[in-house]
Amino acid sequence: MFKLEPDGFAAIAPLFDDLSLRHGSVRAVLRDPSLGDIWVDDLGSPRQALLRGPEGLYLAGDPRRDLGGLAGEIEDFEYVYPDDPWLPVIGEVLPNRFMIAHDRVRLAMTAGRARAFAVPGGFELVAGSQPMDVSIAHAGEVVSRCSVDMVVDGYAEFGVWTDPAYRGRGLAKAAAAASLRCAGEQGVTAFGWHCHASNTRSRKVATALGFEVTDRYQAFSARVPAENDGDLDIAYCRELAATFETGAAEIAWLEFHAAVAWVLAGEPGKAAIAVERLVQRGWWGKTEWLEQHWALERLKADPRFQSAVRAHRAAR
Questions:
Q1: What Rg value do the Cα atoms of the chain yield, rounded?
Q2: In 3D, which of 252, 182, 180, 186 has the Cα closest to residue 222?
Q3: What are 99-147's pLDDT values in tens digits?
Q4: How far apart are the C-alpha atoms of 205 and 197, rounded to whole Å?
Q5: What is residue 115's DSSP assignment?
Q6: Residues ≥6 apart with Cβ < 8 Å to 175
Q7: Tens of pLDDT, residues 68-78
Q8: Which of 83, 89, 131, 185 is deepest in the core (most CB within 10 A)?
Q9: ∠ CA 23-77-129, rounded to 5°
Q10: What is the pTM assigned to this prediction?
């Protein structure tokens, strides 16, 4: 594979036509090469291309050609979004056998259709660091926020987060509604919203705001395809934990995702042991990733987890 110079992005854009319709991140990189890079199989007559953008890696082009170069270019930790024609051969392209399919959905809405939601009493709407980002605070602490993932050509994609202790109060809808309003005032006319198909909370917020599901697709990674407790069946979480533990014999950082899966399977003890192994093997990640992960937070009172976190911080 060969890295494409920015002046060649316009010529390669047709290979990404379908992915551009689905993913704003692809549009953004094609418009502004500083946001990512593109690799092709042939600089003179490219038929296959990889685009690395802010949200992951996107695979486009002709899947019938030689796949060897692609397999060597994709890193084992990447989040891979293949164009649909690649799905039958994706196993030949992915860099490790522990990457699994993530079922995902895209929701969309045009400006002017977003429903308004008031901020509940006792909470305060706060402007974010970016023009379209909005947070909601309680007693001076941010408990919910809506962030714009990217903006390009009058189109923006949004993501929302709420502290688990404050869910069920309509905060996510209020924050997102305010963010959508700000975006509309700044000329955005079309909105997108992506999430795991299993993330019923995110989908409920989006549909309450007026978004509609326009696309279902698959991405691939060696991570747990969940964003909240209860997104996945417990039996499936156990299966994922066992898969990632097996994979950790070859790829040490898979212990992190084994720990996440064990937490979601209701096995915090096994999760803490996985974190211990991860740290003992010299994991290169940030200590904050252990402390702040939404699932691993449940381990904070476990002495083994606490000890592993201290050991990892000391090793940094």
A1: 21
A2: 252
A3: 999 999 999 999 888 899 999 999 999 987 888 999 999 999 999 999 9
A4: 13
A5: P
A6: 125, 134, 135, 136, 144, 145, 146, 160, 162
A7: 677 788 999 99
A8: 83
A9: 55
A10: 0.92
